[in-house]
């Protein structure tokens, strides 16, 4: 699974297609759509996403609407996508099933809780049939609650409800928090982001380069004396 957030990206369609093409179908994009609208959910799934994360979710009614938007009739009201599926090539399904049955059974709908109201209504949200997990937006939630004490209490409530309703949680984790998060009910864990990997890779490369240059400089000093700076330009 690869988490792709078009809420903060300018090219979600390209990302979805790229992930599916270069992984030869082995990686399934789960996309955080920009809004609750039927159009965004349908468009993202038609592009090839295996699931949607619905940001800023606050009520069971919003969740019910999202579940319906993600599924074809009779379970929902997602429109038939005439150009998203090549009939005869991409519609192979188990005997007794249609590709619509398979799509409805396997699409993931994940509400994201990021506010005080979302936490207050979380028990009702978790009882909506058709959701697969709950994602927490800790930064926005902390801002909305306004204090560390209230945030800690809210997270304890979220973990309690996750255990009660057996709804897994989704979130980012660091290596030193992975065990704790797993014990709290997190089952879909994002352990890295492309920008973090890129930044850390550049930092590591620069660090290694500086160390190698320093070692070379010391060797040259020992052999030939001080090393000059050619033309004073470097």
From TrEMBL:
Keywords: Lyase, Metal-binding. The keyword tRNA processing does not apply. It holds the Pfam family HpcH_HpaI. SUPFAM superfamilies: Phosphoenolpyruvate/pyruvate domain. One of its GO terms (cellular component) is cytoplasm. InterPro entries: Aldolase/citrate-lyase_domain (IPR005000), HpcH-HpaI_aldolase (IPR050251), Pyrv/PenolPyrv_kinase-like_dom (IPR015813), Pyrv_kinase-like_dom_sf (IPR040442). One of its GO terms (molecular function) is aldehyde-lyase activity. Residues 23-177 form the HpcH/HpaI aldolase/citrate lyase domain. Signal peptide: none annotated. This is HpcH/HpaI aldolase/citrate lyase domain-containing protein. It comes from Piloderma croceum (strain F 1598).
């Amino acid at each position: 699974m690869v988490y792709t957030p078009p809420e903060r990206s300018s090219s979600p369609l390209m990302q979805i297609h790229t992930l599916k093409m270069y992984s030869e179908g082995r990686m399934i994009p789960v996309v955080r759509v920009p809004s609750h609208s039927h159009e965004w959910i349908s468009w993202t799934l038609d592009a090839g996403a295996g699931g949607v994360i619905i940001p800023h979710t606050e009520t069971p009614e919003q969740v019910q609407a999202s579940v319906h938007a993600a599924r074809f009739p009779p379970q929902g009201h997602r429109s038939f996508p005439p150009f998203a599926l090549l009939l005869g090539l991409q519609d192979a399904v188990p005997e007794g099933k249609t590709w619509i049955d398979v799509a409805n059974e396997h699409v993931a709908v994940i509400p994201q809780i990021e506010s005080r109201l979302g936490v207050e209504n979380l028990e009702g949200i978790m009882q909506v049939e058709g959701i697969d997990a709950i994602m927490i937006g800790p930064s926005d939630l902390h801002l909305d609650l306004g204090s560390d004490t209230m945030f800690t209490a809210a997270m304890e409530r979220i973990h309690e409800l996750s255990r009660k309703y057996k709804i897994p949680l989704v979130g980012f984790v660091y290596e030193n928090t992975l065990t704790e998060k797993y014990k709290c009910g997190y089952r879909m864990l994002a352990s890295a982001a492309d920008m973090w990997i890129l930044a850390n890779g550049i930092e590591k490369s620069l660090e290694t380069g500086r160390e190698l240059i320093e070692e070379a400089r010391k060797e040259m000093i020992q052999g030939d004396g001080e090393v000059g700076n050619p033309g004073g330009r470097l």
